[in-house]
Amino acid sequence: MKELLEKVINGEAETVNLPFTPIEKIEGVLRELGINTEDCEADTNGWEIDFWYTYEGKYELAGSLHYGDFSFSKK
After folding, report:
1. Dist. CA 23–CA 35, nearest whole Å
2. Element (H, E) at 68
3. Helix, strand, or coil here: 15?
């Protein structure tokens, strides 16, 4: 997963799909890569628990806690 996140951070990819993983683990890897996860803007909706987490105003972790389909992208 670290390699996928790095692709976005390094500008090699605009968006990557991530495996269904606990958000805390994803944020742990983001912290290793130097991304501040403490001041995250979080938004959710609906029974599917769709979520959008914005880090540093430029990266977004999004997906559904019901279906998975996680992605990480540059805003």
Report:
1. 14
2. strand 68-74
3. strand
Q: Exposed/middle/buried for 36, CB within 10 Å: 0-12, 13-18, 19+?
A: exposed
Specify whether the CB–CB gap between 70 and 19 falls below 8 A: yes
Per-10-residue mean pLDDT of the chain, 75 residues long, equals: 96 96 96 95 88 96 93 96
Taking residue 28's Cβ as centre, other Cβ atoms within 10 Å add up to 13
Q: Is-above-0.85 flag for pTM?
A: yes
Q: Which two tokens stand for residue 4?
A: 């996928």
